[in-house]
Known about the structure:
The structure is a single chain. By secondary structure, the chain is mainly beta. It folds into 6 domains: 3-90, Thrombin, subunit H, CATH 2.40.10; 94-174, 3-Layer(bab) Sandwich (Phage tail protein beta-alpha-beta fold); 183-191 and 379-425, no CATH class; 224-322, no CATH class; 429-495 and 711-736, no CATH class; 500-710, Jelly Rolls (Sandwich), CATH 2.60.120. The protein is 12% helix and 43% strand. It has 9 helices and 49 strands. Strands 1, 2, 3, 4, 5, 6, 7, 12, 13, 14, 24, 25, 26 and 27 form a 14-stranded mixed sheet that branches. Strands 32, 33, 36, 38, 39, 40, 41, 42, 46 and 47 form a 10-stranded antiparallel sheet that branches. The longest helix has 15 residues, at 355-369.
Amino acid sequence: MKLRLLINAVDVTANLVEESFSLDCGEGNIIDVAQFELVDTANSLVILDGHEVIIEDFDDALIRHFGGLATEVLSSHDGVGSLWNITCQDWKIILDRSYFSKIYTDQTDALIIGDAFTEAAVTEFDTASLVVSQRTMARLVFKESSLRQMLDVLKSITAAFWDVDAFKKIIYRQEFSDRSSFDISTSPNNTTTFPYYDTTRHLSIGQFNSVDIVRGNRLTEETDVYNGDGTRTTFNLRIDGVVSGRVYHNIIRGPDGADPDIPVVDKNTGTDGTPVWTTQTIGFETSDSGKDVLWNPLTAQVIFTTAPSNFANNSWRINGQYLAPVIWRNDDEAAIASAGRIFRKVLHVPEAESDDQAQDLSIAFLREQGNKDLIQCTINQDGLGIGDAINIDDAIYGVNKLYMVHALSMRILGGETYEYRVSLGNGPLAVEGIGPIIRELSDKAGKLDLNTQDSIVVIRQVSTSIELVVTTVTSEARGPRYIAMAVSPSTYDVVILADSPIGYWRLGETTGTTADDETANDNDGTISAGITLGEEALIGGDQNPCLLFDGASGDVDMGSPAALDDIFSGGGSLEAWINADSDGEVNAGRIMDKGQWVFATVDESGGNLRIQFQHGFASTEGIWHTDRDVTINAAHHVVVTFDRDSVANNPSIYVDNVLYTIGNGKLTETSIPAGAALSDAALNFVVGNRTIDDATFDGHIDEPAVYSSVLTSGQITAHYHAGLDNIIAGRWASRV
Length: 736
């Protein structure tokens, strides 16, 4: 590599004194500095402070090592010529001198960055190309703040890496998200790994290895369902939950985005307790009249003109936002194990307005106050940049892990050979992708014990390929219980096959007409015309495609193998992921069908449909359907379990891990079975239609599976989250 040096677009490379050249770079809060000498024997150079300085590759102008301004210029006579000593600072110096004032509410960090530069009238920077949004900020106030201060504030909240590259592009991204083009090793192959030398490692024990972030509050949306006695018209959102022993919330605002900012209240206008929700007109008690309901956010009262009906459950409901506590714990497990004890700091941060912010503050705190692992070394390989994540494999130190480049110094050894002194450090503690999943558990834990340490969520350092996911199962005896599960990418099929389906088709074919059965039963199906192959998967983190049915024709027909006969005799289950565009052909698009039983989408109206299951019996078939609350144009996990051995048995249907049964009022029996159950042994098993091809599903179907057993709620929960997050292991916990 050879450098080209430009000052105010004039090439002065020939004037450069190579041994004088140095370039010291650091991440966003550090100004990059270039220093060099120029010899001008013809006295032709004119260099002023403020001139633009570009250092680029001699053969490729798209590779820049530095861009900035000459901030100190010294010249002296050198015989008949001149000697120039130039000190330059990178473009970040402009950020230090550019100020703005503005308040941002519910805006992304990326939008804030772009708008702040506009407000500061700094338009020559690219604030979009290399900016990756990390968070939506509830509220940020900047008053006569510099652009550098703005970026530092965002970094303190999101723990993101920021910098300005030599082309005036703002870099803002998650740390460790940009890998270096090579790694370094004590056993290099000089192709992907290269040698390094003059190495020092600095390990230091931190003051703390655990931190709690407390005292913050965040707005959280919830729908609470109340009982009524037919005469009571006034309800108190603060007191009723205490009196009834239920979990109610003090709703203080309307749902997210509501205009006006007022809750939504529905009354059950049904006659038998089955919810028939009717939205009420609502106004403020202090200023409105002529409304069905008046609301007072100061006294937490909801006042009805006409009392809600006398239903022990589902009398009326309110949807809006309440203040939930922001409580977060971050443990550095490696540091705790090393110290043999926990050194925990409790930080009271009332300005923390989200779990995102609390999580990032905890990461930033432990980075500052926790254990340090810093390495300095020298390399001769070109191409390393500030913020790059580079792996060090050092047999002497026993290290083989990623470090981030925090600082880089460049010197010319002579000709086209350069030396780089690199400062590397350990990075953030959070595992990528774990935050949103953990926050789901935080919400649930917070609903049980709003002000106790038991509600604190613990982030544990685990392998970067493993995450944590949670869900809730409610027990009448013990209330909400939590399932915490380890997850890993692309393991959905492993989870399904572990529960012994008798037929399981991933429907990931991109060519041909055969749908492969993943089980040992080899119940392969035939894909007919009218079906689009190779569509994007409905399950998360998965590269295995799915099939698109057009609502007019086409099916996947498995024939009638014995393994798929009479699966509901003694109890069986059906499972699939669907994304329906409508309720399908003849308003009853089949998810699966075997003649004597049907699993279908029906009765679409207003963008919602029902999931229906029916089974043939000698005198009267049984038909059951869910409430009409399954949205179209969205992926859903659907399961039905049923034991046909008694006409008194009813199926259970699960949609996205929500149980629909006759008992909880979410499943309706429209035809009561009578007589003996009919066998389906001679009939074909079909996905996406029925055999005579007149009930085609409209939309995507993915991962259908059949079981000759009744799946438990725990298995269904695991399958659902596996489709979202790819679960491989789990455990129960009453608290986290």
